[in-house]
Amino acid sequence: MSEREVDIDxxxxxxxxxGSLSKLEKEIVTADVFGNEDEHEIxxxxxSWQLVSALMVAEIVSTGLLTLPNAIAIVGIVxxxxxxxxxxxxxxxxAKLLVDFKLNHPEVHxxxxxxxxxxxxxxxxxxxxxxxxxxxxxxxxxxLSGQQALSTLSNNGLCASVLLAIFAIAxxxxxxPRTFSRLSWLALVSAVFITLCGILAMVGxxxxxxxxxxxxxxxPSNFYEAFLAITGPVFAYxxxxxxxxxxxxxxxxxxxxxxxxxxxxFATTFFAVFxxxxxxxxxxxxxxxxxxxxxPVWAKISFAFGMVxxxxxxxLYTHFAAKLLFVRFFRxxxxxHSHTILGWSTWVFLCFASVAVAFVLASAVPIFSxxxxxxxxxxxxxxxYGVAGFFWLHDTFHLKGGMDAIKRRWLxxxxxxLTVLAGAFMCVAGxxxxxxxxxxxxxxxxxxxxxxx
Length: 453
Fold this sequence. Notes:
By secondary structure, this protein is mostly helical. It is about 75% helix and about 0% strand. The longest helix is centred in the first third of the chain and has 43 residues, at about 110-155. InterPro entries: AA_transpt_TM.
């Protein structure tokens, strides 16, 4: 276990001398992040693996689902389907590495803590900042999707900026509970509604197939177009960056892999079926998000169900961004577990700031696919895939016997190194593609102007 410096509230431990406090600090470093909660007012470790499954499904099976049929239109059914299934299995493998790392290091609460163990103080700041940015990008994509849903349902009856603000305010209010247990049942509702949204979209597409549509098993494309399609499924599976936070609030962290199996089994199957069915009935002209390619009535019905997921998932991402900073500020102080004025005022401010930044982002970049592409390339490539390889290499070296263990476990080492390289490739190539896409859009005057009424 790596040691780190921590600041504890010394006033919470009256009667202890400096030597005893120093020993206590060293014990806290490797302790469960929330410790023993029996006597606390606010209890975090209350989640079952079933509720974590619901939270994970609600978070991952969301707006990314709606980009997948468009990815098929770019590269064809066969490559896209292979990629969707492969990335789903790959995500299950990296989830296993992440869960093992968390169990080996119970003090890890988020990617920033993991970054500290791997790369020291600089790693902590980079990983933590990346997690917050990723979460805020996610909130931006979700409130933008909510605005699109409200615009569709109201026949553009209100200004887009007003609808965006309405959805942002609702997201902020829903994110305010301090523990994930308060949001877990909403997450179950969210998972049900996004599933119904996908089913209704498939029914709507099947009932109204596009005449003369073009359906192709494979589509000749250059590297730029092909990798642009990859960002769709990469974003769809993006969500591992919140696993540490969710596992930290489980009653039995040892059950976390059960939730990961439920998530990846459901997500991979649903993504594959949804993307193929919608593409087959709409063809190469399918939009991103796919609901825009449905007849108006079916688009409204599907958006009405999907909007529930966008709202709740946006609140989950907001909650995560706020929780990461909140725990960073107040870890091992009474403000974490007690109803203090400072604790609650800080929490409300962090939730508000997260949504406010996301609102500005969504207003400035009002094109759904650009948000998903840049987010997947910069962050999901590492948090969902690449960094898991570092987790395996670190723990094998430090906990299993150094370089001898690395050499002896050659298969695991090879897979871990390939995982790191895959994450690096997705990040570099995806970022290049996304920047080029945005640059082209700017040159054509398609983006860069905020919403106007």
